[in-house]
Design a protein that fits this description.
2-enoyl-CoA Hydratase, Chain A, domain 1; eight-stranded mixed sheet; alpha/beta; about 500 residues
Length: about 500
């Protein structure tokens, strides 16, 4: 039987299993994500005694936007997509080829986990794949698409990759299924509740993107790759834009509310300064108090980290710190410059945060920025208080260019807290405590909560008009264009 006929036979068989469940076949998924007609199958005729017509994974190569990628797609229609010795060997080979070619690898996950019939050989296969994921980390982009169960040992390969796309209703990740949970803890939980998009897109942060259906997932994979280089040896592709890099965005001059405590949407600032108002948020449903997103300035990919005042005033907590730290390390590994937009009143206080390890989490973000070798530009938009100011890529951590809007408040802490400490006795003795404190707060803000002191100390390069931000940031990245350190730097450990 010809290779073409074999593939057709497998696909027709798979359709009978997958389509009634509202799911696509392994081949259909590959053809959706790759450029039309570009797929070239690898190891098509490799089989096992249990599955003489082919094993439970399709592997091969193709192109996305004309650039080479490698891919594997698990086939649930064959023994539930379970991983046995031959399946592992096929996946390992395509990963090796991707590493040798220095090209991205995409894994489409639809598997019940280890093949019980093969015992420890199956577990050994998983261990080898995990090790290969680590070897590839920080060298080539690794993307996982969860379009079915990813159970038991199967969850750890996606967790070691750079990005996880998870599809609503059909894609779940869990270490142990609902039956085991019921036995051990007595909890009744569905597959979706345990490991679906709400669990991992919003609560745990395991998944980076949640998608309504498979088509959206594969469209988004293609879009993501347009921002990324092929490997750590290259820079991201440059896109031609007609968006004027010299333009002023006048609405930003009156954008910050007069009330220092009034929130606003940091996304509005981002959309007004990046090329064509286009950004691609990462982890958009997790740790909403910080934004991590990909965008472009003058056609060049930039990773943006920004505090979000709409959510818990933009404070840093455990989840936000780790979300930002991993994003910074990914961008650094793959030569993506960083823009940090700061409006942070501090770290979230509380027993839960302290006992949960906020110190370690904040240190991860500190570490990520401090080790980063890519071009780094920082703009202080409003609040930049205390340790949180330091963590958000301050000049002391090595930011290359640091600018501030006139609304910037750079201080050890907010005015009210500072006044309470500095003037505790005077406030206590004042006849009109509220009026006296208000006067002291105003004086503190005028004296300390402005960017002038930082500028005089050389800790800010320039105080800029908000309307000039797009122009200033674009120019800064142009100046830093030759700041690069291509090649393997570090992996992208799942923080």
């Amino acid at each position: 039987m010809s290779d073409e006929n074999l593939a057709e036979k497998r696909d027709e068989r798979a359709k009978k299993v997958q389509h009634p469940k509202g799911k696509l076949t392994a081949y259909e998924r590959i053809h959706l994500v790759l450029d039309e007609g570009s797929f070239s199958e690898i190891d098509e005729n490799v089989s096992s005694e249990a599955n003489p017509d082919g094993e439970a994974v399709i592997t091969g190569s193709g192109t996305i936007h004309g650039r080479p990628v490698y891919i594997y797609s698990e086939d649930f229609s064959i023994m539930g997509g379970s991983l046995g010795e031959i399946v592992a060997k096929k996946i390992l080979r395509v990963m090796d080829l991707a590493l040798e070619a220095r090209a991205p690898i995409i894994g489409i996950k639809d598997s019940g986990g280890a093949r019980i019939q093969e015992g420890i050989s199956s577990l050994y296969g998983y261990a080898q794949i995990f090790k290969k994921n680590v070897q590839a980390s920080g060298k080539i982009p690794q993307i996982s698409v969860i379009v079915g169960p990813s159970a038991g040992g199967a969850v750890y390969s996606p967790a070691l990759t750079d990005f996880i796309f998870q599809v609503k209703d059909i894609g779940q990740l869990y270490v142990t299924g609902p039956a085991v949970v019921k036995t051990v803890t007595g909890e009744d939980v569905s597959f979706e509740e345990l490991g679906g998009i709400e669990a991992h897109g919003t609560l745990s942060g395991v998944s980076h993107q949640i998608c309504e259906d498979e088509q959206q997932a594969f469209d988004e994979v293609r879009y993501l790759l347009s921002f990324l280089p092929q490997s750590a040896d290259q820079k991201p592709p440059v896109f031609i834009t007609e968006d004027d890099t010299e333009k002023n965005v006048d609405l930003l001059d009156s954008f910050i509310p007069e009330n220092r405590n009034q929130p606003y949407d940091m996304n509005d600032i981002i959309n007004n300064i990046v090329d064509d108002g286009e950004q691609y948020p990462i982890h958009a449903n997790f740790a909403l108090n910080i934004i991590t997103t990909l965008a472009r300035f003058n056609g060049n990919t930039v990773g943006i980290i920004g505090n979000q005042p709409l959510e818990v005033a933009g404070v840093l907590d455990i989840n936000a710190s780790e979300k930002a730290a991993r994003f910074v390390r990914f961008c650094d590994a793959f030569n993506i410059p960083l823009l940090t937009l700061v409006d942070v009143p501090g770290f979230l206080p509380g027993v839960e945060q302290e006992h949960g390890g906020i110190i370690k989490s904040g240190a991860k973000l500190l570490y990520a920025y401090s080790e980063a070798t890519v071009a780094r530009v920082c703009v202080v938009v409003r609040k930049a208080y205390g340790g949180a100011y330091i963590v958000m890529d301050s000049m002391g951590l090595g930011a290359d260019k640091l600018f501030a809007w006139p609304s910037a408040e750079i201080a050890v802490m907010g005015a009210e807290g500072a006044v309470d400490i500095i003037h505790k006795r005077e406030i206590k003795e004042a006849s009109d405590k509220d009026a006296f404190k208000a006067k002291l707060v105003d004086e503190y803000n005028e004296k300390f909560s402005n960017p002038d002191i930082a500028a005089k100390l050389g800790l800010i390069d320039k105080i800029i008009k908000p309307s000039e931000t797009r122009k200033v940031v674009t120019e800064a990245f142009k100046e830093l264009v030759n700041k690069t350190n291509l090649g393997d730097k570090h992996g992208n450990i799942p923080l």
